[in-house]
Amino acid sequence: MRQLIFQEYVTVDGYAADADGEASFFGTIGEHEAEDRATFERIDTMLLGAETYRLFAGVWPTLEHPIAPLLNALRKVVVSTTLEDTPWGSHEPATVVRDLDAVRALKAEDGKDIILWGSISLFHSLLAAGLVDEIELRVCPVLLGVGRPVFSSQQLGLELIEARPWGETGVLQRFRPTGSAAHR
Hints:
Blueprint: E1 4-11, E2 15-17, H1 33-42, E3 43-49, H2 50-57, H3 68-73, E4 75-79, E5 95-97, H4 100-108, E6 113-117, H5 120-128, E7 134-140, E8 148-149, E9 157-166, E10 170-179
Parallel strand pairs: 1-6, 1-7, 3-4, 3-6, 4-5
Antiparallel strand pairs: 2-8, 7-10, 9-10
């Protein structure tokens, strides 16, 4: 079975975006293209929520960036109950699925792993449903104090898989969810 990996840039205090929804702190970690390329070697599908789809589809299809061709070539799946059309510039459009059962089916398919970028609300739903296999946090050396937290108040056990320096100034933390107190 394919693994579903949630990968997110976060601040040291656990925020994925500031109070205005911006994530300008991404640039604080320096260069990490080699590690991004390694991620693309293990994935073939990108899972997105509707809001992150709109953001990504408005930027990545025409962005001149070293990883843009790799990202644009991925199979793109959007979990949404409202979107009908999901174009991706001149590339293959994304596929829309309506529920978490479709994500379960996606995980059961043959192929490489699946990555979830952004899409915090979808991440919370997938985590509660036990569908997230790995959480990779790319911790940026910034404290925001307020903003959009990566985690909800749901209790969750995590097993540390890896922790190491990442980029020029960041830290990479990888965890495996081990369950929540509410589900035991």
